[in-house]
Amino acid sequence: MSTPLKLVKNLSDEENNYQDISKKKQKQPMVCYDKISKSYGDLQVLKKIDFDIAPGEKVALIGPSGSGKTTLARLLMTLEEPTSGTIKVDGELLWHQKIKGKKVKANEKHLQKIRGKIGMVFQHFNLFPHMTILDNVAAAPIHVAGIPRAEAEEQAISILEKVGLSDKFNAYPSQLSGGQKQRVAIARALVMRPQIMLFDEPTSALDPELVGEVLGVIKDIAQEGEMAMLLITHEMDFAKDVADRVAFFDEGRIVEEGKPEELFYNPRSTRLQDLLSRFRGR
Amino acid sequence: MTILYLLPTLLQGLKITLIITFLAMLLAFVLAFLAGFGRLSKFRVVRFLTAFYVEVFRGTSLLVQLFWIYFALPLIGISLPPLAAGVLTLGLNYGAYGSEVVRSAILAVPKGQTEAGIALNFSPWRRLRHIILPQAFVMMLPGFGNLQIELLKGTSLVSLITLADLTYQATILNASTMETTMIYSLLLVIYFLIAWPLTRGIRWVENRLSVGRY
Ligand SMILES: Nc1ncnc2c1ncn2[C@@H]1O[C@H](COP(=O)(O)OP(=O)(O)OP(=O)(O)O)[C@@H](O)[C@H]1O
Ligand SMILES: [Mg+2]
Predict the structure, then answer these.
(1) Which has the least CB within 10 A, A90, A220, B161, B175?
(2) Which among A42, A120, A51 has a CA at the least distance from the CA of A83?
(3) Are residues A98 and A161 part of one domain?
(4) Is 0.90 exceeded by the ipTM?
């Protein structure tokens, strides 16, 4: 019986049918935002967002400052709680759980279970200043995954080598350049093998000459394939290279989304046209 | 010559002073952490109770607290021996000040550290233990250092509840020998000699712990 699989193939391009298929557990979305809203007091930052990310999909999120991109990622990383709506990760509710058939607020244990599938790289690195580079990367394997130290360090070493930092194991974060710090932060998130990784403007705190090395590392990881990525970025060329899909965010809504070529060469909304021309102008 | 006569008695008092200092420090340290965390608790009752404790002990004088615990408590049926009363008062008082040191150091750890911990799926306890506390503790040390010295100096008040500490012995010697200048000079020197290694000790820990950080 190969029909169902074929069916998925045919329909998965069409956004509308996507939901129905996911219910049948056929290649369900990695992440599914369902009518997600978020307000800070009177300010509504996200307005009923429906947004899916498929397993292994690389999605770039672009949009003007203050449009809510970071907030969207922070809700998924459980750093911020949605005001309404639900998020599913790998088919399971993130902020809610079912107890005796009733949907209630998720407890810490439930959050930890789901959170393990998600990783995040921050704009300002947020490395642990009191730990060496090696310990920064090995800390989660040791304290979260409970792997013996020696084994955790081995994993950390091989990931640090992958991001080109094999000579910095015993340095402290304060002794590194911004680009090196961000590569450590990427290694630190990567070592936990998340199924989806969030990058919130990973290069916008860097000196221009250091941006390339970090984007290079992210590109390498993207090419390896299996891990889904949500890339919030102002680097349009990078987005074009890496992303399978680009979503344009404005005032708490997804205004436009599609393949990078479509969006960048054929922007429909004037807001996106404005944004793109501003970047071209630089 | 007079020194040789005065010293043995003073050193006897020194022993009591050191014992009180040490025990009160231990108590203050534990209370500082309990109350410091208490003020950051997510439970309103806990926050209220610890704030109450801290404000009462910061807002009244050490001497009055000491007298209250030693002279007034017995009237409601709790009488403590002088040493226990002294240690308890000093511990409660400096624990209250210390809790502010603990609280502000924890709050001073950047929010991004907690968020990185959450993103790596650390449990709340492990976040505190491995990420927040190691950074906060270094920031607490200068504050603890000051309080340590304050506490040491505060111990001289226990002479007023009949404890034969350094100050008490000096007062007694002064009454019997009238060597006022000599006795109080010695007293100054001895207090300073205890305080100095305490200060150096804290510095040393501070330097050890902040390796590579800045
Ligand atoms: N904790 C908060 N409290 C109040 N308002 C907030 C908070 N966090 C974010 N906001 C507001 O929400 C809006 C969206 O913020 P967000 O950081 O998601 O935007 P962004 O698209 O990431 O912008 P940028 O490109 O500047 O990073 C902004 O107006 C911001 O001021
Ligand atoms: Mg942002």
Answers:
(1) B175
(2) A42
(3) no
(4) no
